[in-house]
Amino acid sequence: MAAITMKNIVKKYGDGFPAVNDVSIDVQDGEFMILVGPSGCGKSTLLRMIVGLEDITSGDMIIGDRRVNDLAPRERNLAMVFQNYALYPHLTVYENIAFPLRLAGAPNDEVDRKVREASKTLELDEHLERKPGNLSGGQRQRVAMGRAIVRDADAFLFDEPLSNLDAKLRGQMRTEIARLQKRLGITTVYVTHDQTEAMTLGDRVAVLKRGVLQQLASPRELYTNPANLFVAGFIGSPPMNFLPVTVTGTSAALPFGDVELPQDKVDRVPEGKLLIAGIRPEHFEDAAVVEDSRRGQGSTFTTKVDVVEWLGNEAYAYIPFEAEGAVRDQLTQLERDLDGDTMRSQLVVSLDGSSRIAEGDDAEIWVDVRHMHLFDPETGDNLTIDLDRAGRVPAKEDPEGTAAAEQVAQGAAAH
Ligand SMILES: Nc1ncnc2c1ncn2[C@@H]1O[C@H](COP(=O)(O)OP(=O)(O)OP(=O)(O)O)[C@@H](O)[C@H]1O
Ligand SMILES: [Mg+2]
């Protein structure tokens, strides 16, 4: 096992387009790291540079304590599990798993020991003599992982391994991969464009947009402290609501009325400027079902509800609004960036299942303002981010040495 350190990695393909642009990610020994982002953001390119299937234009790729930029794939001792697992149809499950060991000329007793060990971990014992063609998608997946396990690789690399499975199996395999990874404790880098996989599997998640790392943090940190509009919109389902807002004093003017903001948020945003407020659906509630003890933590407004979807334990209410100018432009751009087709000029609020709000009602809605984020519409930055709980945000990082240089300069000025 080994840690994987990527330092300022750049990949330019033939046409000069930077598919990966100055990405630094440190994968700890034994960590489950997710690379996530919309199609074309450079996930596969980055993974292929770790394995050695793609040249690195600049930067350092370090595995364990070796710089591997110039090493061939087989010298890097990593195991890659692809989207289509490329099993040999004419070989049994046993021989499929044994394949890398046979290739390396391992003696029979060693092959047997390792294959049986892997098969036990993967619960494939009763399938060892079968052919891949007779296995389910999930079982085939496990055979592919078995092949990776017997190699005693330093790390596992997965490129969207579940994308061609049906939804139910995908859910099962997700739990299975998580369990196996924990049991084996092997360093893992896993590429997906599915935010649910990212949230459930990863110890940490690296969110990429057009080849640039946006934020590197635990799922909880990403969810509660997204660095910018892109991360905020990408993580979470149904997605965070984005609304135009102007702050005056402690009052925030939303399309539905004014709400009171906590002082710590007010202090961090410019007064009177058009901003984007980000509020997750679950931070709204039917004011009628909010307990008195919680009520004071939030603020209420009254608005007409367009549609209600009641799901038993909860309900979603949809409330249309207008976004103008800079806010509308930024939200349209965001939708393009996210590959999304969601209609963002409606507010989605999640209500308790006991709520009696119905379509067409003028409803009193409560909002937990403590969880409201405020974004700069020009840059998309989250102005109210808690950087201590946001993991790594490259855009906010001090360029190397600047802080130290400033300190030296200040020290010199003092003398
Ligand atoms: N061989 C290549 N030559 C030129 N450009 C390439 C090549 N492979 C990828 N690219 C470009 O690099 C960028 C990143 O591609 P990459 O395959 O890494 O994306 P991805 O995040 O894995 O996307 P997806 O989710 O669709 O698999 C894209 O803009 C793509 O067009
Ligand atoms: Mg890809």
TrEMBL record:
Pfam families the record matches: ABC_tran, OB_MalK
Low complexity bias spans: 401-415
Any one GO molecular function term: ATP binding
Domain of life the protein comes from: Bacteria
Region (Disordered): 393-415
Keyword annotations: ATP-binding, Cell membrane, Membrane, Nucleotide-binding, Translocase, Transport
Protein name, as recorded: sn-glycerol-3-phosphate ABC transporter ATP-binding protein UgpC
Protein source organism: Nocardioides marmotae
